């Protein structure tokens, strides 16, 4: 007996098999975002205060600001105009250079 490979049927079968897992994956992602949002909200140093701390520490314009691992990750410029990566502690507002 000769069997034909039908790509459309194979794709439909693969999608049907994966469908039950999609809500679980989305739920995990949503849970992580919710936890991250709670951490940002609970931080003593908010985004505006993080930018102000970076400026007060002598760094130039902030190009990027992200919340990662319980602290603010900031990309800015130093006094000579070189790009630097910084961390701002979410509790104290302390600014430190991030090592690459």
TrEMBL record:
Which Pfam families does the UniProt entry name for this protein?
PepSY_2
Q: What span is annotated as the signal peptide, if there is one? A: 1-26
Lineage, top-rank taxon, reads: Bacteria
What are the UniProt keywords, alphabetically? Answer: Signal
In terms of InterPro entries, this protein maps to: PepSY (IPR025711)
Residues forming the PepSY domain are 11-98
Name the record gives this protein:
PepSY domain-containing protein
């Amino acid at each position: 007996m000769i069997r034909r490979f039908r790509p459309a049927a194979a794709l439909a079968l693969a999608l049907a098999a994966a469908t039950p897992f999609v809500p679980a994956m989305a739920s995990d992602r949503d849970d992580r975002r919710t936890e991250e949002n709670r951490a940002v909200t609970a931080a003593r140093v908010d985004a505006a205060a993080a930018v102000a701390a970076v400026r007060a520490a002598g760094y130039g314009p902030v190009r990027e600001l992200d919340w990662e691992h319980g602290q603010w990750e900031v990309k800015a410029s130093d006094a000579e105009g070189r790009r630097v990566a910084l961390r701002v502690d979410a509790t104290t507002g302390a600014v430190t250079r991030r090592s690459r």
